[in-house]
Specification:
The chain contains 17 helices and 4 strands. By secondary structure, the protein is mostly helical. A 4-stranded mixed beta sheet has the order 2-1-3-4, covered by helices on one side.
Length: about 425
């Protein structure tokens, strides 16, 4: 145990000090930070509105224009962050209009076409800086549509009725009872909170990157030690099995550290002043996060990591040259990609037959089961069966990888075939 502890500590310290780990982690931290601050960065480059939270737009029209009067009386929704303000000018050659445009007090101005049609005719927006921002354009279109409705309806509809016409309709998902009859019973909302979708998506990305990166790290280190003949010296001071499990646990701690850094980066960016309302803007409530998702997520990550890490260790032990490692590790990498893409492309339908089957297959169950727990429907017995299968497979692969590692670390030359490995393994008993 003392030797394993030494190997774990040496592996951990050695890996976190390497340039590849530091540079890769730094790049990913920067990408996460930039991605979370893109709206703020765009606003900084585009410049802030001098009118504060209100965008001022001019209206060029003659006095008594009904459409202009309705547009001036338009009242935006109370929850809109950006408000629209309108100023009337008598003509496009008006000196005050030119001055306000130069001083950027108004972004541009509207002109109405007089074609005699009922309702609001075509409207033209004039600006020296081109089109409006998408959010402002949407608000302006909503205001003009409401004006058009008022012109057509006249006094037949009240202002509240016209506002109600444009109120968005929400759609809730309800589950029927076993007989298919929903009457006489309280219907439960089966849609998962939005925060669970975000948590599952982030977990899928972090787990996949961590397992793939650290798995290749283990295989590359073992192969490097073999190719440089350092392995022959190492096995004289520590047993091969102690080396293998020490390296795997050491790199596991590296993966945990990397995930902790990514989570801390996300948390720090969320606490920035300009990101203080991002959770509210996207309808994310941390109190709705399923706490069991965090527990099962950590458990599935641990089991999934050791399953794939042991496979990578076995692959690295049978390769004598680093040039051959990529080809030898390709089957394990393909398994990892399958395990990642199945739940990633099934987030909109987490209860399909494919996901249910994948949640029982040990090589795909860590992420597929996490998806079902987070945003799908899964019974307790299904979770138990999946975890038992995953745990049993991890122990079996640990035993098998240990035999392959003990056999392969001193096998040099061309990569041995499966038959040659089986023949050599019979000579050892673990």
């Amino acid at each position: 145990m003392n030797k394993m502890g030494t190997i774990i500590g040496f592996t951990f310290k050695n890996k976190v000090r390497t340039k590849s780990f530091l540079i890769t982690t730094l790049i990913l931290v920067l990408l996460i930070s930039v991605g979370m601050n893109i709206p703020y960065i765009i606003d900084k480059f585009q410049g802030e509105d001098k009118t504060g939270g209100q965008v001022q737009i001019g209206i060029v029209t003659e006095s008594g224009n009904r459409a202009a009067e309705l547009l001036l009386a338009y009242t935006p929704a109370a929850d809109q962050e950006t408000k629209l303000g309108f100023t009337v000018y008598p003509s496009e050659t008006d000196a005050q209009l030119k001055k306000d445009l130069d001083d950027e007090k108004v972004k541009g101005y509207l002109t109405f076409a007089a074609d005699g049609q009922e309702g609001l005719a075509s409207v033209t927006y004039h600006s020296s800086k081109g089109d409006l921002k998408d959010n402002v354009k949407t608000l302006l279109q909503t205001a003009l549509q409401q004006v058009n409705t008022q012109l057509i309806a006249g006094d037949k509809l009240s202002a509240d009725q016209i506002t109600a016409m444009y109120r968005p309709v929400t759609i809730d998902t309800k589950q029927l009872n076993v007989s298919g009859d929903s009457t006489g019973q309280e219907e439960a909302d089966t849609s998962a909170p939005t925060i669970n979708y975000v948590a599952v998506y982030v977990a899928l990305m972090l787990f996949f990157m961590s397992i793939m990166m650290t798995g290749n790290m283990i295989a590359a280190e073992i192969t490097s030690e073999k190719s440089s003949r350092i392995m022959e010296i190492l096995i004289t001071s520590a047993a091969p099995l102690t080396q293998m499990f020490g390296k795997v646990i050491g790199v596991f701690l590296v993966g945990i550290l990397q995930i902790a850094l990514f989570v801390a980066t996300i948390a720090v960016n969320l606490t920035l002043p300009h990101n203080s309302g991002v959770l509210t803007d996207f309808d994310l409530d941390l109190s709705q996060l399923d706490t069991s998702l965090l527990f099962y997520g950590l458990l599935l990550y641990i089991l999934g990591f050791f399953l794939y890490a042991l496979l990578y260790a076995a692959v690295g032990s049978i390769v004598s040259r680093t040039e051959d490692l990529g080809q030898a590790a390709m089957p394990v990498m393909m398994l990892g990609f399958v395990a990642f893409y199945i739940p990633l492309f099934s987030m909109s339908a987490p209860d399909t037959l494919l996901i249910k089957v994948a949640s029982y297959v040990p090589f795909t169950s860590p992420l597929s089961l996490l998806l079902r727990i987070g945003i799908g429907e899964v019974a307790g017995w299904e979770i138990a069966i999946s975890l038992v299968l995953l745990l049993a497979t991890t122990f079996f692969m640990g035993w098998l990888s240990a035999k392959i590692y003990r056999t392969g670390v001193l096998m040099y030359g061309k990569r041995p075939s499966i038959a040659e490995i089986r023949k050599a393994m019979k000579a050892y008993k673990i």
